[in-house]
Design a protein that fits this description.
The complex is a heterodimer of chains A (327) and B (275). Chain A is an all-alpha fold and 327 residues long. Chain A is 75% helix and 0% strand. Chain A is built from 14 helices and no strands. In chain A, helix 4 crosses helix 5. Chain A is globular and about 65 Å long. The relative contact order of chain A is 0.16. Chain B is 32% helix and 26% strand. Chain B contains 9 helices and 12 strands. Chain B has a 6-stranded mixed β-sheet, sandwiched between helices. In chain B, helix 4 packs across helix 5. The chains are: A mainly alpha (327), B alpha/beta (275). The interface between A and B is medium-sized, with 26 and 36 residues.
Amino acid sequence: MLALAVVVSVSTLLGAANLGWTRVVHEVWAQLTGGTSPLSATEAAIVWEVRLPRVVLAGLVGAALAVSGAAFQGVFRNPLADPYLLGAAAGAGMAATIVVVAAPSTTGWIIGPLPLAAFAGAVGGVSLTWLLGRSAGGGTAVLLLAGVAVASFLTAVQTFAQQLNTDTIKQVYSWMLGGLNTTGWREVLITVPYIVLAGVVLCLCARLLDVLAVGDDEAASLGINPGRVRLVVLLAASLATAAAVAVSGLIGFVGIVVPHVVRLLAGASYRVVVPLSLLGGGMFLIVADHIARTAFAPAELPIGVITAFTGAPFFLLVLRLNRGQIR
Amino acid sequence: MNEPASESTSHRALSLRGVSARYGSRVVAADVDVSLEAGSWLAIIGPNGAGKSSLLKAIVGIVAHSGEILLDGTPTSSLSNRERARAIAYAPQTPQLPDRLTVTDYALLGRTPHLSPLARERRSDLVVVSDVLERLDLSALATRALHTLSGGERQRAVLARVLAQQAGLLLLDEPTTGLDIGHAQALLDLIDRLRYEEGATVVSTLHDLTLSAQYAEQLLLLDGGEVVAAGPPATVLTRENIERHYSAQVEVLKTEHGQLVVAPTRAGSVRSRKY
């Protein structure tokens, strides 16, 4: 948690607009103690209205994606399970495309049809996958296959919509590559309740995910209802994913990599992995976003690129370091 | 270690009346009637596909069944999931062991029925688990990840989870799978000893007929889902029964200590003829 605090502070202190970090520290101190600050009004605005909410949002989104990844991996007993595998991403993407295509003028709205549609699309995608999986007999493998099928179908719809409206492709793609560039406190407020709720539910269910890991038969013999646990966890994880995707577009890698890294560093029990994924995911994305906005200032890199660039080598490094513990 | 079994682990008498196990509409074990005294050991034997595992699963409650299953006179269907889990512990034939979990964390899963769904483990649960690990000689391996254990150690870890449940009825599906003769004997001896120390009733399926004769007090022979023989080993394990239901040639012998041994005999081989 200390690391998280450090990361948050550093990210806020530095940034594209070169304000000088000592001056920013003074500003914070001034706000807290009611003294005068060396920053001008615009500069202060940058810190409080632009940078800080962005850092907070990056933390929230990262936490949401990472904890959903851990939850999906627990529910499906599959290390490749990922928030996007159940059609959440495809659903969000398709819904976003439709909004962009149908009402392009509204995409600039902060609270508008775009985030709402993405949200509905993500949840819709997961529900569709769930229903298909159940009607085809239930069980983990069938559910994953249904997810792949749903994702393919929704992506096809999305591509079709894009083909019909090539003038809006650029907007859709920039949304799809993921980014936190136009976010402010509004976005934080929109997502905080959902992400916090989902996070709390998932942390409470962490022990049950451990029980699920031994298989449905044994889990049932231990007195829990595997189907019900799975449903609750899936809903919570989808909620977190949808909230994250709705404001930040599609940011890949976080949901798969962070839980695995946490496992390698802290052990495989979900009682530990779930809460640590929350923190680790938040940290990871804050750092990634920081790099995205400062590396080539004033231009911004799409955050999905950063997460892949930083995530992949880090994962490989941890794998190497723990070679002895891995079969 | 030798204190009398507490109430939660008291012996459980099991009674099955007309129990049939079903997968959907397919009946895999029909009309089973058997009564087991508290603290005794029943071995369910039979050829492959006879419905042994399904019957066990029906008793646990994870396979649909008709008929009555009574624990100390109470029908298990009247128990909630958690009450049943506190009374009956089950180890499947091929348990799924999460590779990276430590032995302690895995055994802690056995405490699940004693915890409310969203609660965390308490100190008393940890004490139960460390006690169980000590009795199973697993204390030295307590923090090792499951995938680093040998086959025999893994089977003991599964037993640890089962015992951590502190249930009065233990259902063990082929507990000696994959174990060599020495380890198999050691495990069965352990279960037998724990039976008395813990105060548990044991129902197991056993592949090896000799071992089932030596450890169980009562046998149930299933073939094609039907009970074809039941009773003490000497009455069930006859050459005729085994020949008829297993299509195998055997001789049932007695060791000098009076223990039953089922020995496969070879009808005649090319090699035995002298040229």
